[in-house]
Amino acid sequence: MQGVIGAFRELDSAVHAVDELKKSRIGDVTVYTPTPRHEFEDVLHAPTSPVRKFTLVGGTLGVTFGYWISIWTSEYWPLVTGGKAFASWIPYTIIGFEVFVLVGALSTVFGMFYVSRIPRLTLTVGYDPRFSHGDFGVWVECPPDKLRSAEEVMRRHGAVEVRGER
Amino acid sequence: MASYAEPRRTGTGLPNIATGDVQLPAVRDYEQVDNEITSTMSPTAGWFMALGAAILCMLIGASAWVYQIYWGLGQAGYAPPLMWGVYIITFVFWVGIGHAGTLISAILFLFRAGFRTTIYRVSEAMTVFAVMTAGLFPIIHIGRPWKFYWLIPYPNWRLIWPNFKSPLVWDVFAISTYLTISTTFLYVGLIPDIAVLRDRETNPVRKRIFSVLSLGWRNSDREWRHFARAYLFLAAFSTPLVLSVHSVVSFDFAMALTPGWHATIFPPYFVAGAIFSGFAMVWTIVIPIRKWFNLKHYVTLNQLDATAKVVLFVSLVVGCAYLTEFFIAWYSGNRAEQEYFYNRVFGQWWWSAWILLCCNMIMPLSLFSQKLRRNTTWLFILSLFINLGMWYERFVIVVPSLTHEFEPWQWGNYLPSWVDMCFLVGSFGWFFMWFLLFVKQLPVFALAEIKEIIPPRLKEAHSHGDHIDVTGHHQAFEPDTPGEFA
Fold this sequence. Notes:
The complex is a heterodimer of chains A (166) and B (486).
Chain A: E1 3-8, H1 11-23, E2 28-32, H2 38-44, H3 51-76, H4 89-116, H5 130-133, E3 136-141, H6 147-156, E4 161-165
Antiparallel strand pairs in A: 1-3, 1-4, 2-3
Helix pairs in contact in A: 1-2, 1-6, 3-4
Chain B: H1 17-20, H2 30-38, H3 45-71, H4 86-110, H5 120-141, H6 167-200, H7 204-213, H8 221-254, H9 266-292, H10 301-332, H11 335-346, H12 350-362, H13 370-373, H14 376-402, H15 418-441, H16 447-452
């Protein structure tokens, strides 16, 4: 992994640098920002997060399990009450709902961890503690012959520090 | 500097809370947010004293538990026909307190209510600790707490499964799901903030702990994108969950035929009451925090004003529910119901019913006054009365019903024992002990989310001059809706 990291004090400087880097196809761009900003989303053109698929699968499995466990146990140990059916879906909806929420939400968190590649034991190349505090960071992963161009774009847009990393 | 104390005026002369509440004009930049909010984590003498008092109260409760385990559940002041007392009352009370946290963090997030931004972390932590407190009481109440795992739905004895048609089993599912999801929600929201602590920390041991807890979070655009989506779905799951949990708790009562309990109004009535008491507890906690840590410019009067309006509205809903109960008792023609409700207000338990009516219906009417809504001293005092009133609401539901059922020979009395009172004191000690420990270990306000509403530092001045932050910078980009991402 080889690239250039630039630190920006101002939001608009970082956004313009990212925009130009993306348009000039110098390399893969990653932005570090202390708080999420729409402006970066607009220039990065990132696809929709796939976390929702984990939510759907987890929620479906959860509600199915909730209904199944309550119906199966009713049939497995039948308690005859007034000649009514052993399984009663109305009270079992509460169990189905609670397990739906439990498994669906936990699947969502698992999905977020999985697609974000966390937990991570070490911080990746290019990360700087300033990026959680107040500055914006732009990391461009690119071949050696494009390092200079990337550096030049960042400096032109007002990066306070630019350095090569490997 | 004082501008944050004043409501923004619209053309009509009325305060524009909808826009005013999301602005923090006294906060200049991201660095200030980090510095001021993390400064609350330094231990002070006052904090140690408060923690000591909380631990003492907790130990009083723990001692009472040991005493009760040795001498048996009879020490709890139960006498037939009343076999539910302070334990169940306090259980419902703490579950209710836990509701406002998820309401503020999830429901108000989905509604894009800006005033939640600075108070939601406190509320979420309050939820987790309140549900942890509530969860103790069914275990205490079963008398043999070492058998608590029998409540867990698995074939525990000769392949017997729990009865899934029982409201008590629903309760186990609801409370355990709620505790799990609330804790997850709190932790997920904390990850970016723990990363800030990791990057600021100089002590190697604490830095290592924060590194583990932050899971290697780097604030990259990819992480934020997935985080935002996951947070949205967690809020979407939590919203029906928060409404369901207290509905399920109300089923513990409403599924019985006991006068005063067997009512279809119970689920919405319980949910409204829970939101009401939870918001009051948020005031009880947030108002001292903003004063002691000098964070009045984060939790502004506009935000407190907005929460006061929510409390006023929910108070009216709760009051309507109280009156509906009386109306239905009269209209039903059911003599047992009618006599029960008469006994509640004018008979044996008149004093408890009037405490709840005064604290929950009459005193909150003061919030129609904008002056009082913006008076933090009054909000704090009112929050204590509402907490008292809501505990008595549960007392009035449990005790008068069980001591005044259908047959006169069943009627009885109830006097909580000193063991009951020790458990009540211990529950507050347990709750505040966890909360005080939380305040000193993690940011009490959400750093990343507050930064969303702070105008970012910009290089270029732009033509539209109506978005200028306190540092004099023009905003090139319109302010985001707070909480849209995190």
